Amino acid sequence: MSEVSYGMQCKDAFSYLEDSLKQLELRENKLRSFPIAIQVLSHLESLDLFGNEIKTVPDDLTFYLQSSLKRLKRLTLNYINCTCDFGKTDFATWIRSHAIKGVTCKTPHRLFGKDISVTPIEEFSKAIAYISKDAFSYLEDSLKQLELRENKLRSFPIAIQVLSHLESLDLFGNEIKTVPDDLTFYLQSSLKRLKRLTLNYINCTCDFGKTDFATWIRSHAIKGVTCKTPHRLFGKDISVTPIEEFCEYVSNSGHK
Q1: In what side-by-side order are the strands of the sheet with 223-229?
Q2: How far apart are CA 210 and CA 216, in angstroms?
Q3: Please, are residues 13 and 37 in contact by the beta-carbon 8 Å criterion?
Q4: What is the DSSP string of 226-255?
Q5: Which of 30, 114, 155, 159 is the 20 to 30 Å CA partner of 193?
Q6: pLDDT tens digits, residue range 152-179?
Q7: 97 SS3 class
Q8: Is 148 in a helix, a strand, or coil?
Q9: Residue 101: φ, ψ to 5°
Q10: Which domains, ranges and CATH numbers included, belong to the chain?
């Protein structure tokens, strides 16, 4: 096994092995980009990059990889960010067309662990941007858990209000920054069994801290609604964050 210095990638690191190396393991290192030195290993059949934070591979590098690594059967990568755009890249196309196993998605959550070689391109673009008002009407008396994470929702889906038996709602990764008071009125009237609501894009301003939504979350100890902004409140769970913390900066500024 050849040694590769931490934090360094030498373009000619494997030049003396180009006609012989069939298997190479570089797992659990600190690589953040695909090592360009690999392209000379024309006999390579298996490359293990598990645990390195390589989220994508640029098209220009893919051109050289697919020209030289014609014997590659397995490429282990597990940090891939499988966005819609990634699904259309030359790298993803190469992996699928040559059935190279081992490249799996880390994000988004709905694709976690999926092997790209057997995942149709359509799967990468399946994300919900809108939910009709009556989408869950036939489930109103039965649904207890609902996961809608990593979609493209920008407002709280009003269709949720009919789910009177709902105990857990996961909207993680959707850019929902607030919930209006008029919708909150219906939510707190109907979602009386709700114990967990996962939202992580909330803009926790002083005004937000005073909204009916924030008050409802705190008074009913509904876990999972966390602040994204401002930075000083990032990751704070609203259910256990006193209203004074939302306005702390404004209050302090007023005394200057």
Answers
A1: 145-147, 168-170, 196-203, 223-229
A2: 10
A3: yes
A4: EEEESGGGTT-BGGGS-HHHHTHHHHHHHT
A5: 155
A6: 899 999 999 999 999 999 999 899 999 9
A7: helix
A8: coil
A9: -80, 155
A10: 15-124 (3.80.10.10), 137-254 (3.80.10.10)
Cβ 92 vs Cβ 66: under 8 Å: no
State residue 124 phi and psi, 5-degree precision.
-70, -25
Torsion sign (Cα): 230, 232, 234, 238: negative
Q: What is the b/e burial string over 163-192, where b = at least 16 CB atoms within 10 angstroms of the residue's CB?
A: beebebbbbbbbebbbbeeebbeebbebbe
How confident is the model over 54-110, as pLDDT tens digits?
Answer: 999 999 999 999 999 999 999 999 999 998 889 989 999 999 999 999 999 998 878
Are 145 and 104 in contact by the 8 Å Cβ rule? The answer is no
For residue 128, give the nearest of 104, 110, 141 by alpha carbon: 110
